[in-house]
């Protein structure tokens, strides 16, 4: 019987987050010959989500449907995932390093009495072992960690391990596991989202972020237009959030979200170290600032010195020309 690896899927607004598919690819790196078992929990019909996991590489999927799993709680989801673990006896677990992953993974690791390596950005395969690379000191350094046991449990940072190609020809068994969820101390009665509509900031391939240099909430409008033209999301520095230019749900940095998009456009951002901690691992960084001495230029791949209110409309115009062409 082949080794089993468990991938915990995560949903948002009824759809699987991209990091769930990236977790499947990470599990394949751990052991390409293992049977990859996806897990998805919720209160609604989960078959379409289970199929998506199979299309992206899972061999089969276990669904857990219960009224207590309508909204995430650590007690409810913890019981559900532990029930699947006990039923399947996997040799390792992979999930996303998201707000849910950060909350749920230590709880599961403690219950399983096993180690946990969180926020993995790369998996290094050698003849003797697997090494898991993760950032430390706010992204200023990286460390390699290995498991001394034979049970790897990792969370992966979104946008770092590419997902496999979606293949709708793939098939696999989907099985519902009936469980009892008891002793729920937290009840979610309502969820009010302050985040903007559209692309999820933490998973966006393109991020357009504004700082104090944007000057006002009105000044963020061109950034939204640029992000829409590029199919990306809008973020912000803490300074912009503190100045009430935008909501704190957009904050990127040491005390906000950590993003690793393919393209990060920093607009009117000076480059304080707290902000760099949340975006310095972006694949390509473009800085737009009227101050040529701004620290952001020290880490930028490309820099534009000038008035953002003149540059952004020109960028939008040129991008739209290319898209039309």
Written description of the protein model:
The protein is α/β, with parallel strands linked by helices. It folds into 2 domains: 4-176, HUPs (Rossmann fold, 3-Layer(aba) Sandwich), CATH 3.40.50; 206-324, TPP-binding domain (Rossmann fold). The chain is built from 8 helices and 17 strands. The protein has helices spanning 18-30, 47-55, 74-88, 99-112, 221-230, 238-242, 273-276, 308-324; strands at residues 4-8, 11-12, 15-16, 35-42, 60-65, 93-96, 117-120, 122-125, 130-136, 141-145, 153-156, 173-176, 206-210, 233-236, 263-267, 284-289, 302-305. The strands form 4 sheets. The protein has a 7-stranded parallel β-sheet, with helices on both faces. Strands 14-13-15-16-17 form a 5-stranded parallel β-sheet. The protein is globular and about 60 Å long. The model has no long low-confidence stretch (mean pLDDT 93).
By DSSP, the count of extended strands is 17
The percent range for strand residues is: 15-25%
Which value, in Å, is the CA radius of gyration?
A: 21 Å
Uncertain parts? none
Largest sheet: 7 strands, parallel
User: Percent range for helical residues?
Assistant: 25-40%
Main sheet: which strands, in order across? 7-11-6-1-4-5-12
| CATH C-level label of the largest domain | Alpha Beta
* CATH fold name of the largest domain: Rossmann fold
> Termini, distance in Å?
54 Å
- Secondary-structure content class: alpha/beta
Family: Belongs to the ETF alpha-subunit/FixB family.
Cofactor: FAD
Domain Electron transfer flavoprotein alpha/beta-subunit N-terminal: 5-196
Protein name: Electron transfer flavoprotein subunit alpha
